[in-house]
Amino acid sequence: MKIAVFGAGNIGCFFGAQLLHTGAHEVLFVGRQRVQNLIRNAGALTVVPVNRPTISIPADKVSFVTDLQDLIAFDPDYVLVTLKGPQVQAAFKELGDLRFDEKTVFISIQNGARNPDLIRTLVPGNLVLGGMVPFNVTISPEDGSHFCQGSGGTLYIEQSAKTEPMALALREAGIVIQVSGNITGVLYGKIATNLNNAINALSGIGLLAELSQRSYRHIWSRCITEALSVYFAAGIVSLPVWGFPTEFMPYMLSLPDFVCVLLFRNVIGIKPGAGSSMADDFVNGKPTEIGDLNGEIVRLADEIGKGDDVPYCRGVLWLVQEVERRQRSGWGGAGWRPKLTGEQIRVFCTAGASNTVAPAAVDILVTAILVVT
Questions:
Q1: Which residues form the Ketopantoate reductase N-terminal domain (predicted)?
Q2: 57, 112, 61: which is closest to 83 by C-alpha?
Q3: Residue 284 CA, distance from chain mean position
């Protein structure tokens, strides 16, 4: 079977390497020159799964291209789309008049709930399935060439007549996978749990360090509560991502600090040193996926007339957008990131994140919070 990884960054390299390691499939990695150089300079593509042996593939055995014409020429049976949400339209538009064979099946493995539908508009002649990854993958800071799984979890793929061959290939690679008949519910469940991505990025510290502090967990809890309320009002049935109802998470997050650390480290499986993908985006000066996460909750709330009921989701959204704006303008440098306390975020969300607050007042408040960091 011929499998292409479109957007071979951290997540794409992580899954692609495991599929390639089986020796049963042709795998083409399609990504940026920076990642290709990283693999070449390291001499190998190395991935570090949770609770499984490290996999290392010699660089000369890794087919990595940066030209989308090579993707078309590869004529894949399946394309795993692991692009960041903001990159999707631009990446597909680079194809121009090039077209995939109608046999090619696309699987969107991305944050957010709307990317599968977006990809369907970009490749209308092909089947597009949704997928969900519940964990982050980071590049190890020690050597800069190992793609490390941050926590455990199950990969979900949308059920269809064309799902099983890909599901089987992933299982044979040792990847835990579940086929779902309600991928939309899974994706919205993932959004609720992913609302901490931005909080972690704004905190400037690692995941376990952040989650060990009640003030940050309070922000996440409020964001989840707002999201679930909006889902209910919009008629969306979200599904749990971590094996227990999402509705339970606000109660779990209110437990004592030491209990939460034990849960996240030993039950959820968050590794020491792990961070969120949005924190990585801040460090690398890249556009974030905030629009697909907190932005999706705010968008839904505004659509159903509940915009004033999501001050925490809106506040975190605006803070991240302000960081992105400052990075684009060169303020603090491309890799600049804030180090906000949970209390600073809470104050902004309760005092500044409202549709009724004048934009000038919001700008003053955001600037006051970010300057002190």
A1: 3-158
A2: 112
A3: 15
pLDDT confidence band for 268 (50 / 70 / 90): confident
Say yes or no: 194 and 312 in one domain.
yes
Length of the chain measured in residues:
373
Pair 159, 227 in one domain: no
Q: Enter the tokens of residue 142.
A: 């020690």
Tell me: do 24 and 91 sit in the same domain: yes
Task: Return the CATH number at 66.
Answer: 3.40.50.720
Count up the domains in the chain and report the number: 2
Give the chain's count of helices (H) and strands (E). 17, 12
- CA dist 236 and 227 (Å) reads 10
Helix H or strand E segment including 165: helix 163-172
How far is Cα 50 from Cα 54, in angstroms, rounded to an integer? 9
For residue 103, list its beta bridge partners.
none
Residues 206 and 108 in one domain: no
78 and 28 both lie in a single domain? yes
User: Which residues, at least 6 apart from 296, have a Cβ–Cβ distance to it below 8 Å?
Assistant: 112, 113, 114, 191
Residue that finishes a domain, picked among 147, 165, 181 = 181
Span 358-365, average pLDDT: 57
The answer for 19, left when phi > 0, alpha when psi is -120 to 50, beta otherwise, is: alpha
Which pLDDT value is given to residue 371? 60
Taking residue 97's Cβ as centre, other Cβ atoms within 10 Å add up to: 4
**pTM exceeds 0.90 for this model:** no
Average pLDDT over residues 228-246: 90
Is it the case that residue 76 has pLDDT exceeding 80? yes
Q: Determine the 3-state secondary structure of 168 from DSSP.
A: helix
CATH (domain of 311)? 1.10.1040.10
Strand partners, 128: 106
Residues forming a β-bridge with 27:
3
